[in-house]
User: Fold this.
Amino acid sequence: MSKEHLIIFDTTMRDGEQSPGASMTREEKLRIARQLERMRVDVIEAGFPAASEGDFESVKAVASIIKDSTVCGLARANEHDVRRCGEAVKPASSPRVHTFIATSPIHMEKKLRMEPSQVIEQAVRAVKWAREYTDNIEFSPEDAGRSDSDFLCRILERVIAAGATTINIPDTVGYTFPEHFGKLIRALRERIPNSDKVVWSVHCHNDLGLAVANSLAAVLNGARQVECTVNGLGERAGNAALEEIVMAVRTRQDIFPCDTRIDSSQIVPASRLVSGVTGFPVQPNKAIVGANAFAHEAGIHQDGVIKSRDTYEIMRAEDVGWNANRLVLGKHSGRNAFRQRLQEIGIMLESEEALNVAFKRFKELADKKHEIFDEDLQALITEENLEQVENEHYRLVSLTAHSETGEQPFARLVVSEDGAERHAEARGSGPVDATFKAIESVVGSGAELLLYSVNNITTGTDSQGEVTVRLSKNGRIVNGQGADTDIVVASAKAYVNALNKLHSKVERINPQV
Ligand code: KIV
Ligand code: ZN
Assistant:
């Protein structure tokens, strides 16, 4: 019997981006979008176009390049947001407008200050504005998990009649439980007279660690779209993790009447890309994509796996893409091989200059490190936005760091600010501390350092260190990344990268505000 299709709607670039510090540049979004398309995600929610000019342009850029996935934008249920969203997704081969308004008593009364009947009329109007741009319209009653089910039936019947084609039920605050949430989905489908005209979708937050369980309960009760994010990124405790939803459904085909079209071998590369771009590390014991997800430590387990894999393994590591890390290029690889490998892993550089800069960096890296892996190439491109190198306000020109037992470490460096070279030196408790103090002494940003983390990109002591620095200033939080075989240099690059993001002063609003 052929299975029904379960639509995977990825919101890494919209809800995921709402995690403090996870905001992405246009180029980062394009790279993630290409990876999501390669993974065969059905719908990519690329952003919230009304949030800022930058968000509008990013959604439009994603809509212009993606061919095999629907590209969606989010809009509050007001005319301005819906029209901005409609314009942003217009270039897509398959565009979708996703509009929402809160329906729980607490949100209607305290946030919207609207009567329930006004909320219904506003929702219907929003769907009608959206129809001027596309027939593919999703409507979400925000905070549905705490909304009255009779009221949900009333509003959803009206928006379906107005032309919504997908109804998404969000558990905005992660409050529901699998049994209740499953029953809610079933009840809405059974009670709303025109419910068969739409695809039912769910969007669960993970505040109680139940986002995946709630989403799967909904699927068992008729939902045929799940909204999720790579690595479970998202507001507060995050959203349902895409990799867990996809692999749960695929591994338990004995239970689920549906399956996704996801190419699961692209899951680990997607996880690494998102982690690299956002600077949010993946915990080692994270299901599917954690470094230990397929590691067997206990002797009794190892013995079992050697005798027969299925004694302790319910999935194969290679099926979710854990065969990465293979040698791809070396010192003698040429420009064409380099360009081709970048394309194979989803990195399309927009100009010849960008390719030249990247190739030069690749050669420098290959001089220091014999074997270059896919992860090194990803880092090489993530480390600095090659297309924007010329426009950077701050740039690390050179760095000397010294540490010696019994001596206080110091750093001496040159940073260019708008092209003008500035020299500095400082002492610190370690070479990284000294380096950051030296940079601050010339830049004087006054930003607060919220996070400093180092990961090795591949294995071995010649691996590149990938550093994430999270800075906060006046309520804005940014992440900077840097990679180098020398972790002090990687740290300096990450700090400078974060300063450039702070300097870019892109202001944006959160859809829920
Ligand atoms: O959590 C939520 O309610 C949302 C909606 C906008 C779908 O993100
Ligand atoms: Zn959400």
The CA atoms of residues 14 and 284 lie 25 Å apart. The chain has four domains: 4-278, 294-322, 335-387, 390-503. The radius of gyration is 24 Å. Residues 487-504 form the longest helix (18 residues).
